[in-house]
Amino acid sequence: GEDVEQSLFLSVREGDSSVINCTYTDSSSTYLYWYKQEPGAGLQLLTYIFSNMDMKQDQRLTVLLNKKDKHLSLRIADTQTGDSAIYFCAESSGAYSGYSTLTFGKGTMLLVSP
Amino acid sequence: EAQVTQNPRYLITVTGKKLTVTCSQNMNHEYMSWYRQDPGLGLRQIYYSMNVEVTDKGDVPEGYKVSRKEKRNFPLILESPSPNQTSLYFCASSLSRRGTYRGYTFGSGTRLTVV
């Protein structure tokens, strides 16, 4: 079945850039998403990218998609302590089957130190 | 405000005592789903519903029941809770199972402890 892989942990210093990587297996993905989960909270949609795009920028966030390698990354510029959270990669798989679903990675915990 | 509301936020119960976690959405979404989140295991889908009276098992359905009598509500029922069901539970909804560009909208979570 479909699979989404992420590294489990990333530690950066405040002001640095953070890059969280994700790989997926389903080549028919329509949308790919990044969710953010702050401590004690639910998952919030951070950004998404359509599968026919290579890059999407939204303020401090840059999403890069390499369809050939099935690799997705999230870059956070000028990382702040408030960015400390768990980040989930997700893909909308089985685009043409009519029975698709969102498949989530296990999440990357980002720790930002002052 | 468009949202998914879960209740309760925290629940401590004893083994075998039936409980229900409620989930309600106000976005007229067709698709609703329940997940549990455990350390190192990420999000695992328990049950989902494509529409009223249409439900199906996810990856970890054992020990859980659901119902979808109305479009807005999707309660999760634990008939006889056991300690291995101690977890953080999330309800999510979407216009469709594929999520569209909006993805899924998640509730704030229910932390369940079974002793």
What does this protein look like?
The complex is a heterodimer of chains A (114) and B (115). With 114 residues, chain A is mainly β. Chain A is built from no helices and eleven strands. Chain A is globular. The model of chain A is unreliable at 95-99 (pLDDT under 50). With 115 residues, chain B is an all-beta fold. Chain B is 0% helix and 50% strand. Chain B is built from no helices and eleven strands. Chain B has strands spanning 4-7, 10-13, 19-25, 31-38, 42-51, 54-57, 65-66, 76-78, 87-94, 105-106, 110-114. In chain B, the strands form two sheets. In chain B, strands 2, 4, 5, 6, 9, 10 and 11 form a seven-stranded mixed beta sheet that branches. In chain B, strands 1-3-8-7 form a four-stranded antiparallel beta sheet, with no helix packed on it. The A-B interface holds A 8, 30-31, 33, 35, 40-45, 48, 50, 88, 90, 92, 94-95, 99-102, 104-107 and B 4, 40-43, 45, 48, 90, 92, 94, 97-109.
Compose a concise summary of this entry.
By secondary structure, chain A is mostly beta strands.
Compile the SSE list and pairings.
The complex is a heterodimer of chains A (114) and B (115).
Chain A: E1 4-6, E2 9-13, E3 18-24, E4 31-37, E5 43-50, E6 55-58, E7 61-66, E8 71-76, E9 85-92, E10 102-104, E11 108-113
Parallel strand pairs in A: 2-11
Antiparallel strand pairs in A: 1-3, 3-8, 4-5, 4-9, 6-7, 7-8, 9-10, 9-11
Chain B: E1 4-7, E2 10-13, E3 19-25, E4 31-38, E5 42-51, E6 54-57, E7 65-66, E8 76-78, E9 87-94, E10 105-106, E11 110-114
Parallel strand pairs in B: 2-11
Antiparallel strand pairs in B: 1-3, 3-8, 4-5, 4-9, 5-6, 7-8, 9-10, 9-11
What brief labels describe this structure?
heterodimer; A: 114 residues; mainly beta; six-stranded mixed sheet; five-stranded antiparallel sheet; B: 115 residues; four-stranded antiparallel sheet; 50% strand; globular
Which structural class should the secondary elements of chain B be placed in? mainly beta
**Would you tell me the structural class of the helices and strands of chain A?**
mainly beta
Taking pLDDT < 50 over at least 5 consecutive residues as the criterion, the unreliable ranges of chain B are none
Report the span from N to C terminus of chain B.
36 Å
Cα distance spanning the termini of chain A = 41 Å
Low-confidence stretches of chain A: 95-99
The biggest sheet of chain A amounts to: 6 strands, mixed
Helix content of chain A: under 10%
- The tally of helices of chain A reads 0
How much of the sequence lies in strands of chain B comes to over 45%
Largest interface: A-B, 26 and 23 residues
Radius of gyration of chain B: 13 Å
Strand content of chain A: over 45%
SSE sequence of chain B, one letter per element:
EEEEEEEEEEE
Task: Report the count of strand segments of chain A.
Answer: 11
**Using DSSP, what is the number of strands of chain B?**
11
What does the average pLDDT of chain A come to? 89
Kindly state the percentage of residues in helix of chain B. Answer: under 10%
Tell me the series of helices and strands of chain A, N- to C-terminal.
Answer: EEEEEEEEEEE
- From the structure provided, what is the oligomeric state, counting identical versus distinct chains? heterodimer
Q: Mind telling me the C-alpha Rg of chain A?
A: 14 Å
